[in-house]
Design brief:
Pathway: Carbohydrate degradation. By secondary structure, the protein is of the alpha/beta class. Helix content is 32%, strand content 20%. Strand 2, helix 2 and strand 3 form a beta-alpha-beta unit. The longest helix is centred in the last third of the chain and has 14 residues. The N and C termini lie close together (8 Å).
């Protein structure tokens, strides 16, 4: 069964405690937390205080996705705030291997996120050093966008790279994930589904999470 990682960027922040309680009681596996700086992406989301409060509200994995420049400046602070795993963008890191080693040294799982235009082949030299790839299936910065179909081919290519090298790396797909396309995403080789609006705009989020979890 796929890992389900609802994105709290789409949650109701006036009811954040209730949203966390719902996720805790659901079949969700991870809390996906998108951090945006208004520089790497044209939007600003939330930072350390929100993550600290979410951390106190759950024992599930806090999966933090940094859509920011110079992530190395803040890695320690995200660990202190409660991140279990930290993904940085390949496009934002001048010294990607150093960034990965820093995250690992802080006892977090290390992820690398890639934008829709970025070839998965660029991950070849770091794939053995990371725990997950966060593959963007929309252009990062805003929720509610449509899934880019070409992503399915990229997932298949990346899964082949992982399997051929006998690596234990998870593929997480982020953006435009719906009940309708989740099966195709999993069939292409993904392990984890990030879902924002699909979950939080649903009339029954718990049921929607269960549907994604049991998509096959």
């Amino acid at each position: 069964m796929p890992i389900i990682a609802p994105s709290l960027l789409s949650s109701n922040f006036l009811r954040l405690e209730e949203e966390c309680k719902m996720l805790n009681e659901s079949e969700a596996d991870w809390f996906h937390l998108d951090v945006m700086d208004g520089r790497f992406v044209p939007n600003i989301s939330f930072g350390f205080p929100i993550i600290e409060h979410i951390r106190k509200a759950t024992t599930k994995i806090c999966d933090v996705h940094l859509m920011i420049l110079e992530p190395e400046r803040y890695a320690e602070a995200f660990k202190a705030a409660g991140a279990d795993q930290l993904s940085v963008h390949i496009e934002a890191c001048v010294h990607l291997h150093r960034n990965i080693q820093q995250i690992k040294s802080l006892d977090m799982k290390a992820g690398v996120a890639i934008n829709p235009h970025t070839p998965v082949s660029l991950l070849q030299d770091v794939l053995g050093d990371i725990d997950l790839v966060c593959m963007m299936s929309v252009n990062p910065g805003f929720g509610g966008q449509k899934f880019i179909p070409r992503t399915l081919d990229k997932i298949t290519e990346l899964r082949r790279m992982i399997d051929d090298n006998k690596l234990n790396v998870l593929i997480e797909v982020d953006g435009g994930v719906t009940i309708e396309n989740a099966g195709a995403i999993i069939d292409a080789g993904a392990h984890a589904l990030v879902a924002g609006n699909t979950v939080f705009k649903s009339s029954d989020p718990t049921k929607t999470i269960s549907q994604l979890k049991h998509i096959r």
